Amino acid sequence: MRAGSPRLLREINDRAAIEALLRNGPLTRSELERLIGLSKPATAQLLTRLETADTVVRNGLRGGGRGPRAQLWSVNGTLAHIAAIDLTPETVDIAIADISGAVLTEHKAPMPVKHGVLEAFVSAVGKACGQAGLQPDQLLHVVVGCPGAVNPANGELAYAPHLPGWNGFDMPGRLREQLAAPVSVENDVNLVALEEMVAGRATEVRDFVVIWPADLVGAAVVINGVLLRGASGGAGEIDGLMIPDRACADTDTDRSGGTFGELLSNASICKLARAHGLAARNAQAVVRKALAAGPAGREFLVDLARRIATGVASVVAVLDPELILLSGDIAQAGGATLNDLVAAELRQLVVPRTPVQLALVTGKPVRSGALHSALAVAREQVFGLPAATTAPFRGPVVAGSPR
Amino acid sequence: MRAGSPRLLREINDRAAIEALLRNGPLTRSELERLIGLSKPATAQLLTRLETADTVVRNGLRGGGRGPRAQLWSVNGTLAHIAAIDLTPETVDIAIADISGAVLTEHKAPMPVKHGVLEAFVSAVGKACGQAGLQPDQLLHVVVGCPGAVNPANGELAYAPHLPGWNGFDMPGRLREQLAAPVSVENDVNLVALEEMVAGRATEVRDFVVIWPADLVGAAVVINGVLLRGASGGAGEIDGLMIPDRACADTDTDRSGGTFGELLSNASICKLARAHGLAARNAQAVVRKALAAGPAGREFLVDLARRIATGVASVVAVLDPELILLSGDIAQAGGATLNDLVAAELRQLVVPRTPVQLALVTGKPVRSGALHSALAVAREQVFGLPAATTAPFRGPVVAGSPR
DNA sequence: GCTCCTGTCTGTTAACTTTCCAGACGATTT
DNA sequence: AAATCGTCTGGAAAGTTAACAGACAGGAGC
In chain A, what residues touch B232 (CB-CB under 8 Å)? Predict the structure, then answer.
């Protein structure tokens, strides 16, 4: 720790004011006073200083009460812009926002099946930027959420990415080069977790895990309010976890050495369903069918829950989190029924009584999470604000809407 | 974030000075200036202020160079005292230290087999305090390291504690009552991890896991330099982890559903050894014998390493830590050979190439870890210093030794 | 071997700067 | 008339730069 002169106080107070303005939208001077705890003259001086530095701007007047109309202030959004991108095998979904968090424009485009993905991606970003009146190289930061995880050593997508055409090269490096803007690539489940922490089920919780049972099982781990990425970007990559098959129905699996991913693959789940007399073309459909069917369906769901819970048990044994969130197509299809079955099975496997809930997936969690992630990077760079999401964030400010 | 007046500067600077003095032992004013970055008059004023508040004391003079002898300053150790205790089924090992980290006295006593453990414990603490010229109720904080983990809900020891006589009541509560001092009870493996982070193999690493393969498998998880305890104190309690038995030799285990602890129990390891033609009365002895034996011994060690690595793989899949440390009797007995076999097996199970090393267990890691833990609590209370061990700690100051 | 000078370091004092606070005052709006 | 906004004035708290007196080691000179 180092000591500081009065100059340090300035920095602390400026940052406090900027953070308050970002969080709580346009504010009058007196509101800002109360939020950051400075006196009237100090706050006024601070605002004029930040205004001449172009950091804050006047944003209308607040009337209504007695006395003269108060000046409203907000952070100058045009200081910097960011892009948040949800990249899937089928589509790319782009949002351009300014540093205040206001979304300027959105753009969605299909991705080609195999060749030319990079070109399609870059042109979609270019189009989105154009709609916002920007060039891609004016973006302060770009966050791309996609399946898989980037290996920090060589930048390649690892952990069995389901993104055809994106393998075998330094993905963030190539994007950075093509867009002439800083790019970071983040696992999609991690971004969902970020979003759940910011505006979903995990706002009151500091340690939680999002589990994504699917053809490619993923998980995101949040410890102490900070997303855990892992030494090689592989935290939460539990697809390869070796777990025993504890399903009651015999589906001929090698009971001594299945991976979590194998046990929850489409094929394996459909096989399990057939053993219970159910048939459908994929896991999601099977689960829906089982919910509609009677006792046989329930038995299948119990077996499925046992498989899921056995993997979740490993996570709970290692981390003992405050909360487990289930997300993804299968969990959504299974709804509260499957969720509760997993919770019940989990209780029999581990000592902690960790609550299991369905993730609150509304809207576009991956893109939203990417937006928050990019904003955190940009705000750290521009304002020196700490990027760790500690205090609850009250959601982005909508452009031009005074509160 | 809140803003601050000049008074906040005082607090920041005082804390910086106290931290520098705690870390780097007795310092002259000019050394302190350089460390915290204040000017000469400000530092001098700060020291006289802290001296009149009894927070720092003069600690001899530094001669040798030109000019007058410089005054040495250090934190007033007598401000508060703490106790660090290593509690095992057989013995209790107590150290009393002051807030500067100087150990005033040590005391070790045997524990009774079944009855009267509480009384024996309290009397041992009383004796240790007496040697230091204190009463137990003068202790600002007491940290007890022991096997198992305390359930925060009711204070009872959980996770199959191997501490006879300590079950079925609110352990920290009862100790607090008997000693009339604040007590916290911490898992012993957690304290070993803390010690490895402060002065062992993990000083350069922020995310690591200590694995303790034994009759009761434990693990300690450190994320971002902070020990993870878990929502119900159960983080790292991987004894109950469901893993398949991947040993080649058939020992008649239920391949579909063993727990990690069952596969590494004394009985199970001896059975595995017998399948390889080795016999001894406990796991530690078997491992030693296998090291001495030839190829058959090696085959057994490979099988043992497969069991250990399968459990470790679950941890790596969830956390992707920078480092895995093996500790405890079995790992010690197996030495580098077993360590390397585990590392090799682990590579076949997971994507990350997590290094596996033997813990650097010298001296008394549990008691030492308890000491650091108690000091962190005391320093937070007395000086308002943040308790998270972020910056590397350079070891406690030995009583009365000027540097 | 002794004395004295010099350079360097310690610790203190004084004057100045930066930052914030308390309170007063005029202007504005209901 | 009452409340509120924005600004102004004087002062308090904290730190910085600069200068000074005193202490001590080392070397020069005898």
Answer: 320, 351-353
